[in-house]
């Protein structure tokens, strides 16, 4: 372990030791949950917004029942196989909107919660709806960290006319480096974290950011653990249709599905084929008959062969973003559910990616 990481974990250890325990420290400390928000507002798009009143209710619940820790602490502890505080949660926002500062930051500051905003550096300060760099720097002194969301929030999967795969990947790489450099120039640090715009990625993008040394964050559901894929960590959207606190409570207590096989990558799903894939699970804390998968409100049929389960959709996918969610209650604690989400991204017939 380098001197830097030795000092880092000494600081982290002191931080975690100072937190009041709100759950049994021996239970599921290898699991954490990341929440994702966009707007704290009643005047922005409802699908990605939460009202200040509901946001305050979320934070009050977290304060009473969970341990909110910095995203960087959660990621680095799990990468190093270290335990998290019981029921650990990290809070994130995408896009760097001004209403985060106006409506969300005072609430987060009241609870002394750290959080991370994924920003598009080229858009900072370009409109009254966006944070400017002066505001970003002020927030950075008040428990807020900032990370890469690409330079200007374009679809990473979109290729230009006649663009080869290598040229496309080179362009994506240059974009990420440029955005990261701007953040470092403005704030003096570089996390090498990337939140995928629109939550979209595929195996080529994952391989690229792994080679670049980045940690990737999606918008599909699930908890994370040391065995998670750090090129595509799930986050629970907690605004819009997902802002109901009663349903969010179950997700906050979820566990990362113990997949022992190489998890399927979120590859391009063709419109004229029904996806089918298999995963292998560690069943020591899961009963196979209680493992269930859902798509569009429907329960999917599954085929088991020992510890491997085959999942298939009955029909091809429409253009846009969709996902299959699978859950299973823990045998050790039936109030907590293992959760796994497989996202799919499909372009239109003419190759466009939908916002």
UniProtKB/TrEMBL annotation:
Which keywords fit this entry according to its UniProt record?
Signal
List, alphabetically, the InterPro entries matched.
Glyco_hydro/deAcase_b/a-brl, NODB_dom, Polysacch_Deacetylase
Q: Where is the signal peptide?
A: 1-23
Query: Per the record, what is one GO cellular component?
Result: extracellular region
Domain NodB homology, residue spans: 87-355
Whether Signal counts among this entry's keywords is yes
Q: Where in the cell is it found?
A: Secreted
Tell me one GO biological process term.
carbohydrate metabolic process
Domain of life according to the entry: Bacteria
Major site of localization recorded for this protein: secreted
Molecular function GO terms recorded = hydrolase activity, acting on carbon-nitrogen (but not peptide) bonds
**Pfam families assigned to the protein according to its UniProt record, in alphabetical order:** Polysacc_deac_1 (PF01522)
Q: What is this protein called?
A: NodB homology domain-containing protein
């Amino acid at each position: 372990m380098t001197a830097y990481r030795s000092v880092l974990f000494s600081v982290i250890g002191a931080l975690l030791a100072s937190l009041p325990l709100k759950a049994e420290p021996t239970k599921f400390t290898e699991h954490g949950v990341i929440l994702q928000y966009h707007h704290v507002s009643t005047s922005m798009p409802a699908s990605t917004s939460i009202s200040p009143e509901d946001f305050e209710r979320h934070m009050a619940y977290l304060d009473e029942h969970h341990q909110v820790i910095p995203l960087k602490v959660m990621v680095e502890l799990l990468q190093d196989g270290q335990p998290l505080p019981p029921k650990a949660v990290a809070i994130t926002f995408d896009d760097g909107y001004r209403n985060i500062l106006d409506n969300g930051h005072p609430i987060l500051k009241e609870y002394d919660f750290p959080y991370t905003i994924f920003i598009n550096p080229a858009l900072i300060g370009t409109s009254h709806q966006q944070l400017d760099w002066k505001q970003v720097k002020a927030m950075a002194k008040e428990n807020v960290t900032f990370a890469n969301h690409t330079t200007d929030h374009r679809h990473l999967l979109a290729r230009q006319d006649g663009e080869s795969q290598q040229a496309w990947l080179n362009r994506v790489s240059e974009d990420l480096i440029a955005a990261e450099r701007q953040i470092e120039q403005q704030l003096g640090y570089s996390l090498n974290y990337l939140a995928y715009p629109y939550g979209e990625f595929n195996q080529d993008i994952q391989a690229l950011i792994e080679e670049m040394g980045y940690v990737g964050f999606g918008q599909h559901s699930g908890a994370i653990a040391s065995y998670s894929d750090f090129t595509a960590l799930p986050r629970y959207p907690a605004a819009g249709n997902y802002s109901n606190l009663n349903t969010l409570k179950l997700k906050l207590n979820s566990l990362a599905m113990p997949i022992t096989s190489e998890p399927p990558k979120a590859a391009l799903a063709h419109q004229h084929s029904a996806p089918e894939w298999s995963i292998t699970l560690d069943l020591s804390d899961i009963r196979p008959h209680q493992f269930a998968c859902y798509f569009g409100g429907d329960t999917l049929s599954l085929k088991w062969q020992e510890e491997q389960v085959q999942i298939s959709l009955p029909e091809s996918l429409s253009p846009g973003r969709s996902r299959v969610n699978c859950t299973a209650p823990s045998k050790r604690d039936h109030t907590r559910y293992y959760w796994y989400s497989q996202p799919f991204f499909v372009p239109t017939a003419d190759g466009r990616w939908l916002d």
